[in-house]
Structure prediction request, 227 residues.
Amino acid sequence: MASLPLPSVAARAERLLSEALRGQDRLDGRIDLGEPRFIAATYSWDHAEMMVLYQLLRERGWMVRMMDQGPKAGITAEGYMAADELAAERGRSEEVFVAMSFSSAMTSAYETGLQVGIERAGYAPVRVDRTEHVNRIDDEIVARIRRSAFVVADFTEQKSGVYFEAGFALGLNLPVIWNCRKDDIYNLHFDVRQYNCIVWKDENDLARRLQLRIEATVGRGPRATEM
Prediction:
């Protein structure tokens, strides 16, 4: 896959805000922007570049510099409200990106399993090979993941692209629902085995369990009232 395009500067600044919220147990908590996680979360080359994004958040009034305990930052009331609005905007998305093997052997797993489970939960599944577009395929994958409410990843047949797409979604703080057919579960990479994976035996089992998992962890989707 070719090198991926960076998110916009505004999107990277918003990712800094989201990362700053992680682990905060007080509204007036102090945030050490020297932690390496902020560089990774914002796709920055180094601390200096990440601080440019921090300055943008300060100019928006979403973060402030707090000097009482060293050069640390804090999130303002406006910042908390902006974070809530960003989360709500993503929550209104009805699209769900499906990462899976596109082999013909998996067609039934998608059409009578993954697709059915997602639609019954009130969302619209998106499989990039069934989407009309004029972009490079890697650009389209990234764009679709970014505007999805969450990602459903099925690791049956162990395709490297599925691992990448699930990891990319995690980097965006998107929920990922993990799936693998029972006869392939022992081939799952050890980094993924730590997650609560739906181990399905047939398409009907997959559809039922996926719907329940979505509704229990993400909630019913925008299309639920239409069904």
Observations:
- The domain at 93-221 is CATH 3.40.50.450 (Rossmann fold).
